[in-house]
């Protein structure tokens, strides 16, 4: 009787093991099918939960390097060509090469892009237990250093070209309004509320030497004629004048991807351009 009972238990355990294996096999098949079906730039965000589920199943004690290695092996186990690889960078303190992340290859029309897994920031620290999405770089911009301090000349230049503007750097302005801290805060707060500025790039200080307020800022998306007009109105409202001896403006143009070297040459042929340099745009996928 006891022998029969033991045999029954063994059979049940084998059955449970088989079911567990089947479930694991089904999960792997579903992950493979799901991940591979989304392996393109338009749908790659759909893979974020799949990656995070895998990360959640790794041991709590695992190191960052072991997480990268596990991700690389798991991603490359899919039937599609994920081409996952570990990225390396130089440690800023010790100067040694170390693992810095993991990337995959994703098709964007006819271009294969390298997307880096963007690990989540939790409590102001990077965590390797989940990703927020992906990031990738495109060489689709160019910095052009002009000899212009006056914004009117900058606008005239950008309006003559059929390129969108990523940003205009180097803006330095003097305000003849009362040079006190309340006025400085008032101007900065109002300029930060503009749709073509950002909080981090509007700042200023009191210049007691010439009794002026000095404002520094960057302007974004200024191919927009309404933004140009609004900025000129703001300059009048806050009595801002271009600081002629200040930093000259650098314009960051968006250009067709892959034409950077051509436009480096073209822009330096302008007599008022000091230099032109290829630039990259960091895109985020969430």
Automatic annotation (TrEMBL):
<protein>
    <submittedName>
        <fullName>Uncharacterized protein</fullName>
    </submittedName>
</protein>
<keyword id="KW-0732">Signal</keyword>
<feature type="signal peptide">
    <location>
        <begin position="1"/>
        <end position="20"/>
    </location>
</feature>
């Amino acid at each position: 009787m006891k022998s029969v009972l033991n045999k029954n238990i063994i059979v049940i355990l084998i059955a449970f093991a088989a079911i567990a294996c089947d479930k694991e096999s089904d999960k792997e098949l579903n992950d493979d099918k799901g991940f591979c079906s989304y392996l393109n730039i338009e749908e790659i965000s759909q893979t974020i939960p799949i990656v995070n589920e895998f990360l959640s199943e790794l041991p709590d004690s695992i190191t960052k390097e072991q997480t990268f290695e596990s991700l690389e092996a798991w991603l490359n186990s899919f039937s599609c060509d994920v081409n996952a690889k570990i990225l390396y960078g130089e440690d800023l303190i010790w100067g040694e090469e170390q693992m810095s992340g993991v990337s995959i290859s994703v098709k964007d029309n006819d271009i294969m892009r390298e997307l880096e897994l963007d690990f989540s920031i939790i409590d102001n620290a990077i965590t390797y237990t989940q990703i927020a999405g992906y990031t990738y770089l495109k060489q689709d911009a160019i910095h052009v250093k002009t000899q212009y301090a006056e914004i009117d000349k900058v606008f005239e230049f950008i309006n003559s070209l059929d390129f969108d503007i990523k940003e205009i750097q180097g803006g330095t302005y003097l305000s003849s309004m009362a040079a006190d801290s309340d006025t400085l805060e008032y101007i900065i707060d109002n300029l930060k509320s503009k749709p073509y500025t950002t909080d981090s790039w509007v700042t200023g200080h009191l210049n007691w030497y010439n009794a002026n307020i000095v404002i520094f800022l960057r302007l974004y998306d200024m191919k927009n004629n309404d933004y140009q007009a609004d900025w000129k109105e703001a300059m009048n409202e806050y009595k801002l004048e271009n600081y002629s001896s200040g930093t000259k403006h650098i314009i960051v143009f968006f250009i067709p991807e892959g034409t950077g070297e051509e436009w480096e040459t073209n822009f330096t042929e302008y007599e008022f351009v000091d230099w032109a340099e290829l630039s990259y745009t960091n895109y985020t996928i969430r």
